[in-house]
Structure prediction request, 235 residues.
Amino acid sequence: MKTARFKQVSDQQAAYLQLLIADRDADSRKHALETIAKLYRTGGRFKNPERILPHIIFLCKDEHEKVRRWAFNTLALVGTKKEVPSLIEALSREASNPDVLAAVIVALSSLANEEETRSILFRADLPLEGFALLAAAQQNPAFAQELTKTRVDIDSASVSDLRLATLLLGLRKAPENMLSERHLNRDVIGDLNFYPDELVSQYSVWAAYEDPGMDLSSLRIKPKDLFDFHPGIRK
Prediction:
């Protein structure tokens, strides 16, 4: 059995991220969390994660929504099972905020096992289907089979569901035909390039870049029109 290979984050970078994550500026805190999440997704690990974990947990109650969302997403990668009780509490605290709530579910499904996740979500009146399933499947492969039966209709789905679906596509965890029963994901993802919600449109382009089964032909954006779009898509 092969063991996972991890690359240790340098002491210099770890020290910089610890400073950045405690910065007064919300964009700096968000950037630090995004960087940590990217490091962990690509195999990076802190030598002493216990030094930065308290900062991540603290930011789960940050006044800025974007910071809280990234704090939960990062906690899913860096956290431990000890954080599950605080995530249970966050389910009710973030109940009116779909994007942050989804991030809470992502963290919960990552740090708790399948049975615990189902039980906790059920008690929180969040059965593992639709929105909750799309979030839980980001980090826990135990829900992959249920995900194959899920369709996210690009013409009628909520903004939150479309954000989660395009994220799954970019993470290469979405089943084929998720966006259409009759068409491959690569053939319809481009229809979301012009979606009114900025994140949905941005994620749809990012997904086409990340998924090896897609390429520029999957997009509806013409190169000559690129500078008409917001920076996230241009990047």
